Amino acid sequence: MSAPVVTLDGPGGAGKGTIAKLLASHLGWHLLDSGAIYRLVALAAIREDVDLSDESSVKTIACDLDAEFVVSDDHSVKTLLSGQDVGSELRTEQTGAAASQIAAYTSVREALLERQRRFAEPPGLVADGRDMGTVVFPEAPLKIFLTASLEERANRRYKQLKEQGLSANIQALLRELAERDERDANRSVAPLRPAEDAVILDCTELSINQVFEQVLSLVQERVGN
């Protein structure tokens, strides 16, 4: 790696994205939202009416993906697909479920692996995903696995969707998150699990600020920033 990397892995709704953005902003580091990359492939496939069960066609989408993360002065992040800001579309449950499905394809993961690793540039990178510490950046000096109860994660996702003006149903979210957890944990390629040397942080009872302070303390201890 050409720069220090902090990885944040964990199941959907655990708060990885929020903590990753706060940490990257605080440190002045680059940010990689790996879930967004898979969601971008999924969204592009949906827009082009590609059958998500057709691995070869999805791989073609991944290889040709025109995607960019643009960090603003306030450290907010715009996610662009073919030059269009698609941030709100990426966070729908339909796109999330599709991203989880295509993430199980070996050829798609291989197509996106090197692209993700190129995000590791000075002064450093905060990488958020499900296999950042186990597959993409196994040599990262600090790997964190964030988790929370299924009920808490569903409540957080419900609140997030409502704040974005999107419709949401708590029972549907519970079911979809449980199904995604099962699929992610049992896929044959890069299953969701903590790296052997990861710090596991259960944030069910913690506020965002409390989680951030714990993560920042770990960074200062392990990386020295």
Provide keyphrases for this structure.
225 residues, alpha/beta, Rossmann fold, 8 strands, 16% strand, globular
Describe the structure.
With 225 residues, the chain is α/β, with parallel strands linked by helices. The protein has a single domain, classed as Rossmann fold, CATH 3.40.50.300. It is 50% helix and 16% strand. The chain is built from ten helices and eight strands. It has helices spanning 16-27, 34-47, 55-63, 87-90, 93-102, 106-117, 132-136, 150-163, 170-186, 208-222, and strands spanning 5-9, 30-33, 67-71, 77-81, 84-85, 125-129, 142-147, 199-202. The strands form two sheets. Strands 2-6-1-7-8 form a five-stranded parallel sheet. Strand 4 and strand 5 form a beta hairpin. The protein is globular, with a radius of gyration of 16 Å. It starts with a strand and ends with a helix. 40% of the residues are buried. The mean pLDDT is 89.
Mind sketching the topology for me?
Layout (H helix, E strand, L loop, with lengths): L4 E5 L6 H12 L2 E4 H14 L7 H9 L3 E5 L5 E5 L2 E2 L1 H4 L2 H10 L3 H12 L7 E5 L2 H5 L5 E6 L2 H14 L6 H17 L12 E4 L5 H15 L3
Parallel strand pairs: 1-6, 1-7, 2-6, 7-8
Antiparallel strand pairs: 3-4, 4-5
Amino- and carboxy-terminal Cα gap? 17 Å
Percent helix: 40-55%
Mean pLDDT: 89
Q: In terms of quaternary structure, what is this?
A: single chain
**What is the count of DSSP helices, taking H or I runs of 4+ residues?**
10
CATH uppermost class: Alpha Beta
Radius of gyration: 16 Å
Largest sheet: 5 strands, parallel
What is the CATH superfamily label? P-loop containing nucleotide triphosphate hydrolases
Amount of beta strand? 15-25%
Indicate the overall shape.
globular
